[in-house]
Design brief:
Layout lengths: L1 E7 L4 H11 L3 E10 L4 E9 L5 H15 L2 E5 L5 E7 L4 H11 L5 E8 L16 E3 L7 H14 L4 E4 L8 H6 L4 E8 L8 H8 L3 E8 L9 E8 L6 H24 L3 E4 L2 E4 L3
Parallel strand pairs: 5-6, 5-8, 6-7, 8-9
Antiparallel strand pairs: 1-3, 1-4, 2-3, 9-10, 10-11, 12-13
Helix pairs in contact: 1-2, 3-7, 6-7
């Protein structure tokens, strides 16, 4: 099982957790912890062999400890698979990468649906076989109705995580709020930041030396959500706009894949406007 917790830091938390697990017959397989001295918050992730007890029994065992420390916590069986919905628009490099990794067993998830504001024919090179596909077109006038359909689909399918795999629609404040802490976006990130159309061409025009990408949680503040993962790559004057686009897609794919995998493995804990990521 995987236990994650966060609470105000106090002496004895690690001792209480490890003692409880020992006394109930569990064996700790991996443990990571972090004390944020700026906020006074404590974070912990513990992987343990639960013995004979199931998840419900362990929740009952842990509840008194959780109450004592007023913890925010999760407990999940290691073989439980998260239910994930992937949203995409015309660019499918991130969608295709997630699908490939899922089929290879790298991402332990159940895909509830692939949703796009474009028809399935937009992705002739992406293997969508066996996956539910929903075409939800959207315009400025139909956006509220389209998002209502999207939210209903999230609820009806029991989706736990929504991944914006280059979904080029800004979520409304209402929908972003409903998905807070369980919606991941991938965004190109540069120094300086280039917004709008053709960002890699803008970067080339300014002679940037580094391009990168950021995976973050979606919030009502556009592109301001807690950051999960980032990566960069150096470029030079020899790189054409096309080369920047190609390299940028590679960075976006790997950054998004890491962020999704860490979420699926309960390695990402919210810490206000930041995250604590217990990497493997």
């Amino acid at each position: 099982m995987i236990l994650t917790l966060s609470c105000d830091d106090r002496p004895g938390i690690v001792s209480r957790v490890s003692t409880l697990l020992f006394e109930r017959g569990a064996n700790i397989l991996d443990a990571q912890q972090y004390n944020d001295q700026e906020t006074g918050r404590f974070f912990m992730r513990v992987v343990f062999d639960p013995g004979e007890a199931d998840v419900d029994a362990w929740r009952a065992h842990l509840q008194p400890l959780v109450d004592d420390y007023e913890m925010t916590w999760t407990l999940r069986g290691r073989k439980e698979r998260r239910r994930v919905m992937i949203l995409a628009s015309q660019q499918d490099h991130c969608l295709a990468d997630l699908m490939w990794r899922w089929r290879q067993g790298e991402l332990p998830m159940d895909i509830t649906a692939v949703v796009s504001n474009h028809p399935a024919s937009t992705y002739p090179h992406t293997d969508l076989q066996g996956v539910a596909f929903r075409h939800l077109p959207v315009t400025a006038e139909t956006k509220p109705a389209q998002e209502a359909q999207l939210w209903k689909l999230v609820q009806d399918t029991g989706t736990e995580l929504v991944v914006l795999a280059r979904y080029m629609q800004v979520l409304s404040h209402d929908l972003a709020g409903k998905l807070e802490g369980r919606c991941i976006n991938i965004h190109h990130s540069f120094l300086p930041g280039f917004k709008g159309a053709r960002p890699y061409h803008q970067a080339h025009g300014r002679g940037v030396k580094v391009i990168g990408a950021t995976a973050h949680f979606v919030t009502a503040d556009l592109d301001e959500g807690p950051i999960i993962e980032q990566d960069v790559e150096r470029i030079s004057h020899r790189d054409t706009p096309a080369a920047l686009v190609r390299k940028g897609r590679d960075i976006e794919r790997r950054v998004l894949a890491r962020a999704v995998r860490w979420f699926l493995e309960d390695r990402v804990l919210l810490n206000g406007r930041k995250t604590v990521v217990f990497t493997d």
